[in-house]
Amino acid sequence: MTDDIPGPPSGLRALLPDLAPWRASRDFRRLWYSGLISNFGSFLTFVALPVQLKDLTGSAAAVGAIGAVELIPLLVFGLYGGALADAWDKRKLIVWTEVGQGVLSAVLLLNALLPEPAVWPLYIVAALSSGLVSVQRPALDSLWPRIVAHDHLPAAASLNSFRWTVGGVAGPALAGVVVAYAGLGWAYGADLLTFLVSVALVVRIAAAPASHEAARPSLRAIAEGARYAWSRKELLGTYAVDLAAMFLAMPLAVLPFLADELDAEWSLGLMYASVPLGALLVSLVSGWTGRIHRHGRMVVLSAALWGLAIAAAGVMSNVWLVLLFLTVAGGCDMVSGIFRGIMWNQTIPDELRGRLAGIELLSYSVGPTVGQVRSGGFAAWWGVRASVWSGGVLCAGAVGLLALCLPKLMTYDARTDEHAARVREQRAAARV
What we know:
The protein is mostly helical.
């Protein structure tokens, strides 16, 4: 339930995150806390699972295969999960997928406690977890706009980004300590506990049944969502820009080798933390985003700057400058993500929101996964640093080309866009 509250802050407070959605909606607060808690737990398993695989197999290929087993469920269930989110009660989908994730954490815990843990359950759990996330994420992304006032959606996007970046920075650090000093069992057990707390919060959220216009989940319904996305060239542009940025300029796979080349093996953890740190810093001063209306231009500009910052990190020989530019890149990526989210939430009709969220899930998940292959291949062929800086340059060029090919992305204005106006009227009528 959303209450009327004062408008956005002004003066110095305008730089800080706008807490209006938090104050106005109890369901937003519950969902936000649920995501924060389960995010921490997920990072525990995110670190513990590859560590356990490394310990059991001693094979880098075996660890890398986690990504392969996760990709197929992501592709299959991402789109279908969007159709489910449009046709079913979104709260129930979130609750049951959280329960499923808790069961998978329990399986990992039991396996870790065996005298001789098996390898195959780790791959099964990774694949099933990817499928559950692919079903849950469209439901989550399509639920936020229902429980937050339309004018508060930019602030909600910033607060959600802040929640994610807190987990991205603190989660791996905490996971490393737990795994190193307490053991894998404690990591999996803590993850199980976070899912239990998350479920207890989500079940208290109001029901979110399907819109009466929503189509039943089917290939035809998925195709309908794809056709709608194709008809909205400004939305298509946000997907394409994100894919280009992640495919061409995501350097995570080569960071261990970059640290070696810089003779700074000690810096690897800092390199991994730099990108989410930049995102966190931006989210802390994200109040200004609510006053921007040309969201497409901000998506393009920040994605191009992401590429240029990655390119700068690739040419630097001083490790501290590398860390600085990786942090800048993370901040740019966060800006792009915030404005992509605002465009999606303010312009997509409720009856299509789940299916479009499924397409969104693919756009920001497949890019980084395939991007690791690109960066690794370039590094083997051309060298590590060349792989990093060339990817950044290619990203900036690709984003510029997309901006030229998709003028509707550059001219989008939330104040005058017909789709934003239609959704605004739809939500206003629903509150009467």
